[in-house]
Amino acid sequence: MKNFSIALPLDTEYFTTVRLTTGGICALADFDVESTEDVKVCVTESLLILKRSGFTSARVLFSHGSPMLCEIVGEDREKAPQEGIDDEISFALLSALLGEVDFEKDGQGKVVAVKFNA
Question: 45 lies in which domain range?
Answer without folding.
Answer: 2-117
